[in-house]
Amino acid sequence: MKLADLRKLSIRQNLNIRFPLPNGLECVISEHGVAQIPALRRAPDFNLEQELASVAEFILEPAACSPPQKKPPEGYRRVGRAELDSLVAAPAAASNAAEDE
Q1: How large is the average pLDDT for residues 58-74?
Q2: Rounded to the nearest 5 degrees, what angle is found at the Cα of 62, between the Cα atoms of 58 and 66?
Q3: Euclidean distance between the first and final Cα of the chain, in Å?
Q4: Positive or negative: CA dihedral 62, 65, 69, 71
Q5: Which of 25, 34, 28 is nearest to 7 (CA)?
Q6: Residues 55/1, Cβ–Cβ less than 8 Å
Q7: Distance between CA 77 and CA 95 in Å, rounded?
Q8: How far apart are CA 92 and CA 45, in angstroms?
């Protein structure tokens, strides 16, 4: 799973996708597919694509919950990498089946 896959998923399903980075920061992919690290105030000294490879847990929340809140909003859910992989693959498989017909 790549960052581009998460960006597409967030746009298609109108979600914010949040995940912690190993360096203690948090990345948020908006419903517009824009990846942001809110606490970052300068150019990063890491590659987000490489950091994503080590992330195991993600938070999916409806886009209506923007801006981020201190407590988890209603409708959010935590998913592991395997479940998110299946969500990313599902729309692609559905569109491929529609094209074959």
Answers
A1: 69
A2: 95
A3: 27
A4: negative
A5: 34
A6: no
A7: 25
A8: 33
Domain ranges of the chain: 3-100
Length of the chain, please? Answer: 101
**1-26 residue pLDDT tens:** 899 999 999 999 999 999 999 989 99
19 DSSP β-pair partners: 27
Distance (Å, whole) CA 78 – CA 19:
10
Strand partners, 62: 15
Residue linked to tokens 């809110």 = 38
In this predicted structure, the answer to whether residue 88 has a pLDDT above a threshold of 90 is: no
pTM of the model: 0.77
Mean pLDDT of 38-60: 91
One-letter amino acid for residue 74 of the chain: E
Burial of 43 per CB tally in 10 Å (0-12, 13-18, 19+): exposed
CB 8, CB 33: distance < 8 Å: yes
Q: Where are the beta strands (DSSP E) in 1-101?
A: 15-20, 26-29, 35-36, 57-62, 77-80
